[in-house]
Design goal:
The complex is a heterodimer of chains A (279) and B (241).
Chain A: H1 2-10, H2 17-42, E1 48-51, H3 68-81, E2 87-89, E3 95-97, H4 99-111, H5 113-116, E4 118-123, H6 133-148, H7 152-165, E5 169-170, E6 181-182, H8 183-191, H9 195-211, H10 232-252, H11 260-278
Helix pairs in contact in A: 3-4, 7-9, 8-9, 10-11
Chain B: E1 3-7, H1 16-29, E2 34-38, H2 44-48, H3 58-62, E3 70-73, E4 76-79, H4 88-91, H5 97-104, E5 111-115, H6 121-130, E6 133-138, H7 142-160, E7 168-176, H8 181-193, E8 199-203, H9 206-213, H10 218-221, H11 228-238
Parallel strand pairs in B: 1-5, 1-6, 2-4, 2-5, 6-7, 7-8
Antiparallel strand pairs in B: 3-4
The chains are: A alpha/beta (279), B alpha/beta (241).
């Protein structure tokens, strides 16, 4: 009996081939375990909450640079009403679309880690951004287009629902009374587009309702089709305001060493623009 | 910097809880501040160190309640294990829940030991993901080796996908009885079966068994127990030495 045992141990493995088989079985089960865990995230493209730390950067470069002003606007909007559109990830949790939203969450997490450590995501089980970079780019563009090419009806609907849900919202422009909230900028933040664009879409819808224009008048006319006689002095003033705003944006974003000279010149230009605006 | 280690092997009865309790005692004996998180619904470590299984602890912590660890010894505190760990709320938590909660509550002991349960993948995952190291106790039995490989596979898969979880793991042959041939050859076999993974020994020591029945930390029961040199080796590995 003792002879048998020592003969076995001389073969190297006290447990014979069973041990190697057991290891193989264990490894296979580990794969299965992990698949169950990951499948929970991939379930039918349903939005789920995922810890921000698990999200990996895009393998390719950002197609649009992240605009800090837009991120700050999103931070405010997410604080108020949460994230409407989940960000889009590939099967290994690489970011496909939603860099601004993710950056907004990262900012929020610094403020309150407990509340903002998880972000709504949709994981695409078919997409592998490392192996299929073109696919990833197409999905990214498609997802972003979907959000910025809003139809006037969508914006109008959102506006009506907001007005019904919260009476403190107002559509009127200009100075607000205490307790009033401006509707247009809010919608702009929410949908990730400019205030002007939202206003144009809302006006477009109204125009259609009142004048019953042709159904295909999908023009991008920002004035909403209204014919107005423009005062040239006012137009110039408007342009100056726009220039001022753009300058502010440029100056507020971090700039590189080699842009320093340009930065100081733009600063001087801004002073001039401001003077002219205030005169 | 907290040293965090999860101890588990999927299979039951391989000395997980004995190793967790003894390692806690080793670090406490070294003057370190030790936090044990008992993720076993049976609460064996909790009991073995003098706590009350089922008292407010790990389950409530996981559910997000404000829970302070129970102090069992000047240097050892515990989030007690208990049946509530099997509750629906705990089962529906995401894999990173425990890791996130530890960070949120700013629990910063010198050493954090997470005792993983047998047969509960879900709790095991919560614990594994929360730790930077893992120790896998294993005995000379095919089921134990298969369980060890399963955990090793999970850890490696997480590493490859750069998910949170143990960056290093080691095997610990536990309950070694040198009169048994299989026990004498297992450590060599483990080196072949898990190439490049450190393997440690943790012998069968009557002091360990007695200390757990007396519900005392090992060093309080027997400060010169024979396993301390072996625990020291494991401690050195955890310290990165």
């Amino acid at each position: 009996m003792a002879g048998k045992l020592s003969a076995k141990s001389k073969r190297g493995l006290g447990l014979g081939g069973v041990a190697a088989k057991a290891v193989a079985a264990g490894r296979r089960s580990a794969e299965a375990d992990l698949k169950v865990e990951e499948d929970n995230y991939r379930r039918e493209n349903a939005a789920r909450l995922l810890s921000i730390d698990m999200i990996k950067e895009r393998p390719a470069e950002d197609t649009r640079p992240v605009d800090p002003v837009h991120v700050d606007a999103l931070v405010e909007s997410i604080k108020l009403i949460g994230l409407i559109q989940p960000i889009y990830l590939d099967r290994d949790f690489h970011l496909i679309a939603g860099a601004h939203r993710l950056n907004a969450y990262r900012k929020l997490k610094l403020e309150d880690p407990q509340k903002w450590s998880k972000i709504p995501v949709v994981v695409d089980p078919e997409l592998d951004a490392v192996k299929q970079p073109e696919q990833a780019l197409l999905k990214e563009i498609a997802e972003n287009e979907k959000r910025s090419n809003l139809t006037p009806e969508q914006v109008q609907n959102a506006a009506e629902r907001l007005l019904a849900a919260d009476p403190s919202f107002t559509r009127k422009a200009g100075r607000l009374k205490a307790g009033e909230k401006a509707l247009t900028p809010f919608l702009a933040n929410t949908f990730g587009v400019s205030t002007r664009y939202v206003r144009a879409l809302l006006n477009h819808q109204e125009d259609k309702a009142t004048t019953d224009s042709s159904p295909h008048s999908n023009s991008s006319d920002q004035t909403g089709g209204k014919t107005m006689i423009k005062d040239p002095a006012k137009e110039k003033q408007k342009l100056l305001k726009q220039i001022n705003k753009r300058l502010e944006q440029w100056l507020a974003s971090p700039y590189l060493e080699q842009e320093k000279k340009l930065g100081s010149q733009l600063e001087r230009l801004q002073v001039l623009v401001n003077k002219s605006l205030n005169s | 910097m907290t040293i965090s280690v999860a101890i588990g092997c999927r299979k039951g009865g391989v000395g997980k809880s004995a190793l967790s309790a003894s390692l806690a005692s080793y670090f406490a004996r070294e003057g370190k501040d030790v936090l044990l998180i008992d993720l076993d619904p049976q609460g064996n470590v909790t009991f073995g160190l003098g706590g009350e299984p089922g008292s407010v602890g790990a389950a409530e912590f996981l559910k997000g309640e404000k829970v302070a660890p129970t102090i069992l010894h000047p240097n050892i505190s515990i989030l007690a294990g208990g049946p509530e760990l099997n509750s629906v709320e705990v089962s529906s938590l995401e894999p990173e829940a425990l890791r996130d909660l530890i960070a949120d509550h700013q629990l910063n002991p010198d050493v954090m030991i997470i005792d993983l349960p047998p047969y509960s993948e879900h709790l095991e995952r919560l614990g594994l993901v929360a730790a930077d190291h893992a120790l896998i106790p294993v005995v000379a039995h095919p089921f134990a080796i298969s369980g060890a490989a399963r955990i090793a596979g999970l850890i490696e898969a997480r590493q490859q996908r750069s998910r949170p979880g143990p960056q290093r793991y080691a095997l610990v042959q536990s309950m070694i009885d040198l009169r048994r041939t299989l026990d004498r050859t297992l450590q060599e076999s483990l080196k072949e079966l898990f190439p490049g993974i450190p393997t440690f020994g943790f012998r069968q020591d009557i002091s360990v068994a007695y200390s757990l029945t007396e519900q005392l930390p090992l060093h309080v029961f027997d400060n010169r127990a024979r396993v301390f040199p072996e625990l020291e080796e494991i401690g050195a590995w955890l310290n990165g030495r």
